[in-house]
């Protein structure tokens, strides 16, 4: 069976999912029938939230898209996961020039590993170009207001994680 041209895999740590990620998914759905949001277990980063928490946040944040978005946890190499999903495209959000070097390296390495898989980049809405999960976690840890950047479920979870406040 040939790989689907209508499905794209959006990999990342999503620790936690932000409105920037949500915006990129919405844009991708204008071009593809299905987005597989793939949360990597094998990432070099030490996450704040467990894989189950990140999955639950993404499911809630993207519920409005119904079956057009699937949230999946994956182990091992991304290109192998993309092939298992019968897809041939990887989606990444590109915010600023500073993202480019890492993204370029990753895209070309993935191409080297699997030549038939392409990486596509979409830019989030201007208002989200300065967002990153790392910065949001720092603001949350220091008690700042993150309501403009992350869905309510993440906001509550951060409040609880950093300040022990139950929702
Ligand atoms: O959101 P992130 O942390 O920038 O995403 C990085 C991610 C998860 C896409 C990358 O670490 C990844 O693809 N990990 C899976 C293992 C893999 O295939 N590594 C080689 C990538 S060239």
Would you write up a description of this structure?
- This protein has six helices and five strands, in the order βαβαβαβαβαα.
- The longest helix has 17 residues, at 97-113.
- It has one domain: Rossmann fold, CATH 3.40.50.620.
- It is α/β, with parallel strands linked by helices.
- 34% of the residues are buried.
- The strands form two sheets. Strands 1-2-3 form a three-stranded parallel sheet. A two-stranded parallel sheet has the order 4-5.
- 4'-phosphopantetheine binds at residues 11-13, 40, 42-43, 45, 77-78, 106, 109-110.
Which CATH class applies here?
Answer: Alpha Beta
At the fold tier of CATH, the topology name is Rossmann fold
Helical segment count = 6
Question: Based on helices, strands and strand pairing, what is the structural class?
Answer: alpha/beta
Q: How would a textbook summarize the main sheet?
A: 3 strands, parallel
Quaternary state of this entry equals single chain
User: Average pLDDT value?
Assistant: 95
State the shape.
Answer: globular
What sequence of helices (H) and strands (E) makes up the elements?
EHEHEHEHEHH
What is the rounded Rg? 16 Å
């Amino acid at each position: 069976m040939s790989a689907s041209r209508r499905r794209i895999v959006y990999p990342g740590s999503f620790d936690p999912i932000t409105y920037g990620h949500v915006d990129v998914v919405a844009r991708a759905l204008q071009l593809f029938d299905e987005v597989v949001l793939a949360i990597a277990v094998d990432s070099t980063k030490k996450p704040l939230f467990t894989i189950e928490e990140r999955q639950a946040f993404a499911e809630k944040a993207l519920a409005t898209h119904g079956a057009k978005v699937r949230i999946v946890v994956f182990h091992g190499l991304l290109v192998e996961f993309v092939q298992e999903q019968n897809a041939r495209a990887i989606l990444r959000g590109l915010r600023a020039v500073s993202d480019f070097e890492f993204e370029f390296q990753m895209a070309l390495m993935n191409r080297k590993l699997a030549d038939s898989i392409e990486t596509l980049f979409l830019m989030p809405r201007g208002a989200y170009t300065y967002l990153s999960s790392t910065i949001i976690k720092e603001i949350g840890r220091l008690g700042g207001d993150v309501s403009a950047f992350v869905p309510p479920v993440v906001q509550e979870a951060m409040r609880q994680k950093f300040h022990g406040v139950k929702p």
